[in-house]
Amino acid sequence: MKLIEPKTDKDFERYYDLRWRILRAPWNQPKGSEKDDLENKSIHLMAIDNNEIWGVGRLHFNSSEEAQIRYMAVEENQQGKGIGSSILLKLEERAKEKGAKYTVLNSRDSAVKFYEKYGYRVIGEAPTLFGVIKHFKMRKEF
User: Fold this and answer.
1) How far apart are CA 35 and CA 41, in angstroms?
2) C-alpha torsion sign, points 91, 133, 83, 44
3) Mind listing the pLDDT tens digit for each residue in 112-121?
4) Is pTM beyond 0.85 here?
5) Residue 65 lies in a domain
6) CB 43 within 8 A of CB 87
7) How many domains does the structure of the chain reveal?
8) C-alpha dihedral (41, 56, 69, 126), degrees to nearest 10
9) 12 half-sphere exposure, CB direction, 13 A CA radius
10) What is the CATH number of the domain that holds 44?
11) Residue 18 belongs to some domain of the structure
């Protein structure tokens, strides 16, 4: 498996499709809901093996010191194999390279323990997604 930044239109099509299928489709959200207005200002990573995309994640900056990780998603049949960890660590590395002092993210309740393993701590509640998916705001200092 290798981590790459999507470059071509086809790369981005596949990247966004995985984000939508894992993070939006199960809650009947429309195509396009997996994107926001920061896509063009973000660092995108995808884990790829044998031309199959197994995971994705995104990093953007909220200020010169605060980076935010969003849209972390791994194919269900590939979870627990270190793909999410690799993406997270590489996004953190990029954040540090660009001067971030800390990262924040909004974690689904089911993923809090995953992020805690990497030094994130819950700093508050975040908005509940689609009225049913409880989220927590988490932070990690560098």
Assistant:
1) 12
2) negative
3) 999 999 999 9
4) yes
5) yes
6) no
7) 1
8) 120
9) 11
10) 3.40.630.30
11) yes
Q: Is residue 128 part of a domain?
A: no
DSSP conformational letter for 76: G
Neighbours of 65 (CB within 10 A): 12
> Is residue 113 within 8 Å of 76, Cβ to Cβ?
no
Residue 26 in domain: yes
**Which strands sit side by side in the sheet containing 2-4, from one edge to the other?**
2-4, 43-49, 52-61, 66-74, 102-108, 133-141, 121-129
- Nearest alpha-carbon partner for 106 in 48, 21, 36, 11: 36
- Structural domain of 6: 2-103
Name which of 113, 105, 108 is nearest 130 in CA terms: 108
Element (H, E) at 14: helix 9-23
pLDDT (tens digit per residue) in 77-104: 999 999 999 999 999 999 999 999 999 9
Per-residue burial over 99-127, b if 16 or more Cβ lie within 10 Å, else e, is ebebbbbbbbeebbebbeeeebeeeeebe
